[in-house]
Design a protein that fits this description.
With about 290 residues, the protein is of the alpha/beta class. The chain contains 16 helices and six strands.
Length: about 290
């Protein structure tokens, strides 16, 4: 029965429609449904959920898109249409802590750190495995911090001030990396600040950026809450030099493999899901 539910859930209907279809059967109502942002999240969290009672799937909509807003929408809509559903969503915290108007929706749980990648990187098990795998890991890690941290400041400012700067299209950390010296270019801070200001279409200035960082004391914030994981993994791959061995995909695969149930049980996210599980009267977590 679980396999048939998995099969129906995988139909090209979008996650919400597929869950609602499965819920038409008594078996579907007995399962716990966990909606996550993307495939990387599914690979990590699925390891810690009971396979006979829980289905973990990405937040794909009818257009094929995924993301945190889809997680929130799917969980809300499914619960409204079928209140008996045992459903929760896991999304990256992103910069929600800096947005005063954001309230975490019911049945939605956030990563302990900025996102999944930064949560994994903080784990001692992951650090140990990466140090064994890449002998120059600590040196490469340290090289990535300044640039990634500053990019985090810009991303926070962009989010809070609603500047609509599209980092993915025009402002990437790798553009400020010296591939010959295997480190950030000497003028990286000035260059990326000027690029950010230019992309804001006059909505901010360099002095506005500096004032925002200073006023909000972002220099005092924890690196794992500020840096975007995808930015860091990209630079880490470059800093480790052998980008074929230490590709972004391989780094994420390594982290996913070694991140253990004990690591997960030490997080606030685990505690939140455990509390939800107990309240729902279901067996979702492996332990």
């Amino acid at each position: 029965m679980l396999q048939s539910l998995r099969d129906s859930f995988g139909e090209p209907l979008g996650t919400k429609s597929a869950i609602l279809l499965a819920l038409k059967s008594p078996a579907g109502l007995r399962f716990s449904w966990i909606v996550v942002e993307a495939e990387e999240d599914e690979a990590v969290y699925k390891k810690f959920m009971h396979p006979d009672s829980t289905v973990v799937k990405t937040s794909v909509d009818c257009t094929g898109r995924k993301g945190y807003s889809n997680v929130e929408t799917i969980v809300r809509d499914v619960k409204e249409e079928e209140p008996r559903t045992h459903i929760l969503g896991i999304r990256d915290a992103d910069y929600s802590r800096y947005v005063k108007r954001y309230v975490v929706p019911v049945n939605i749980f956030l990563t302990d750190r900025r996102d999944l990648e930064m949560t994994l990187l903080e784990s001692e098990s992951v650090k140990h495995a990466l140090r064994i795998w890449a002998m120059n890991y600590d040196e490469a890690f340290a090289k990535c911090i300044p640039l990634c941290r500053y990019f985090g400041y810009l991303r926070i400012f962009n989010t809070v001030a609603d500047l609509s700067v599209r980092f993915h299209d025009h402002l990437r950390t790798s553009k400020f990396w010296d591939h010959k010296q295997h480190s950030a270019v000497e003028s990286w801070k000035l260059d990326c600040t000027n690029k950010f200001v230019a992309l804001s279409d006059g909505k901010c200035s360099v002095s506005d950026v500096n004032a925002f960082i200073s006023t909000n004391k972002l220099n005092e914030e924890d690196f794992y809450d500020v840096c975007r994981g995808h930015d860091f993994i990209k630079l880490l791959s470059l800093a480790l030099i052998d980008v074929q061995t230490y590709s972004e995909v391989n780094i994420m695969k390594k982290m996913t493999e070694v991140y253990s149930l004990d690591d997960f049980k030490a997080t606030k996210l685990y505690a939140s899901i455990k509390k939800w599980q107990d309240a729902e009267g279901v067996c979702t977590l492996l332990a």
